[in-house]
Design the sequence.
């Protein structure tokens, strides 16, 4: 894990937020490469679940919503973690993370019953702590104006259920998808970006007929797993964890977590929950607006069926997926790879990211930087490719060192401009994974790269 954290900082993926002021715990900034990677993961998710599905539409709701929503959803009452305080230094911990706590996860290390800050052994009784961040709407800071930063994106997909259904003429089963910022005032943090206080959730609320919930639950578990495998996560690093009945969230009839084998142990990457008709029923009750669905499929003469749809919710944390993808892709090659250019035989890092999500898709390298015509040609090729791909130009250091720099950030292709280029208008195209090089005509580069990056 330390190696991943160090690579992320060194190469501009992830920085601690406000680092020059000493940093803020569990808040992270995504640097130039990290933000590209994060965006690419989101793009793949949107392509898979919005573009390629026929009956799922996207919305982009607000972070701050009507405060009654959190009453209806049960978050004001139940979105809590049990908290204990060290009596000596007043550090706070999650009671269910303590050795004596009634810990309901799997494969997660428990803290010894000793304060990790001061070694104290006495703690206060556990009390429930609400994880939602509070603020005020408008200039008056009183009870009436309290609002919350959303801890999940789900709720605006329920409150907009009717508007989305009617404006898009959707029929059950259909889904509403959303990716967006969520906020949780986590008590215990750590493990890098795994448990952040500000993060992105990508989730779908899939509305189904009440008696078809189990079928669609199984469907979405498989769809979610397939997405992770297609992005490149190794099968052996994924497993399912079924929540025991007594530990289900207040809205759930059944929940399966998809866990990933992170360097710190098996932990939740994503989940699929059967939220039943809980949310739509609650919002009907609290808003006074009936959110039932009239099934138009009843044949003429038959009474139209009216019901509150059940909801199957596949959800995932984008940062957790990003971390899992980084961990899975990270390889150290002891003594260097076999490329002749690595004469020092030092250890090499290769980030074998899926080509579709790599932050930089192709790099353009003049063989040497002190030959004006070579540099000019390389810059021309860089400009030629820029409208089509995320390209980086690099002329600093030996060619072998530059390949390794790009391998370390997962760039799938490197183009080298050499003296032959000037005569024959072709370049070498190097593949990150096989290190094989082929000569390619400059005029064919765009099509060849497009094809290679797509497959
Ligand atoms: N709408 C359902 C929901 O929010 P959740 O399991 O509480 O379910 C969804 O959260 C996903 O968000 C999790 O599967 C996890 O990947 C991610 N997640 C939850 N808390 C997180 C945190 N503090 N930091 C980063 N990701 C988190």
Sequence:
């Amino acid at each position: 894990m330390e190696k991943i954290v160090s690579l992320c900082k060194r190469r501009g993926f992830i920085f601690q937020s406000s680092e020059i002021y000493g940093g803020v715990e569990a808040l992270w900034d995504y640097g130039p490469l990290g933000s590209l990677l994060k965006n690419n993961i989101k793009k793949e998710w949107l392509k898979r679940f919005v573009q390629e599905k026929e009956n799922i539409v996207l919305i982009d709701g607000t972070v701050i919503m009507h405060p009654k929503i959190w009453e209806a959803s049960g978050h004001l009452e139940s979105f809590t973690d049990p908290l204990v305080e060290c009596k000596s230094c007043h550090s706070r911990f999650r009671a269910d993370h303590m050795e004596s706590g009634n810990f309901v996860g799997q494969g997660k290390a428990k803290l010894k019953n000793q304060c990790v800050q001061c070694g104290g052994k006495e703690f206060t009784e556990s009390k429930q702590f609400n994880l939602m961040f509070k603020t005020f709407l408008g200039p008056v800071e009183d009870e009436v104006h309290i609002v919350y930063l959303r801890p999940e994106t789900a709720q605006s997909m329920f409150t907009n259920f009717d508007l989305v259904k009617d404006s898009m003429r959707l029929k059950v089963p259909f889904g509403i998808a959303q990716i967006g910022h969520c906020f949780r005032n986590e008590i215990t943090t750590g493990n890098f970006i795994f448990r952040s206080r500000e993060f992105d959730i990508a989730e779908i609320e899939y509305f189904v007929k009440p008696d078809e919930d189990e079928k669609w639950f199984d469907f979405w578990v498989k769809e979610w797993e397939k997405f992770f495998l297609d992005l490149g996560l190794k099968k052996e690093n994924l497993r399912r964890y079924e929540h025991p009945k007594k530990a289900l969230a207040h809205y759930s009839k059944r929940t399966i977590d998809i866990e990933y084998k992170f360097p710190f142990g098996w932990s939740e990457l994503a989940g699929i929950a059967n939220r039943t008709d809980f949310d739509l029923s609650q919002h009907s009750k609290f808003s006074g607006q009936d959110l039932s669905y009239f099934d138009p499929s009843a044949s003429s003469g038959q009474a139209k069926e009216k019901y509150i749809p059940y909801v199957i919710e596949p959800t995932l944390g984008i940062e957790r997926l990003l971390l899992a993808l980084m961990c899975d892709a990270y390889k150290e090659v002891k003594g260097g790879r076999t490329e002749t250019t690595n004469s020092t035989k030092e250890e090499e890092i290769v980030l074998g990211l899926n080509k579709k999500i790599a932050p930089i898709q192709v790099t353009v390298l003049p063989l040497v930087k002190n030959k004006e015509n070579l540099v000019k040609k390389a810059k021309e090729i860089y400009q030629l490719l820029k409208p089509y791909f995320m390209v980086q130009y690099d002329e600093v250091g030996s060619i072998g060192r530059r390949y390794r720099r790009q391998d370390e950030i997962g760039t799938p292709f490197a183009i080298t401009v050499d003296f032959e280029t000037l005569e024959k208008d072709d370049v070498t195209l190097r593949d990150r994974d096989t290190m094989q090089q082929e000569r390619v005509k400059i005029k064919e580069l765009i099509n060849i790269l497009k094809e290679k990056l797509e497959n």
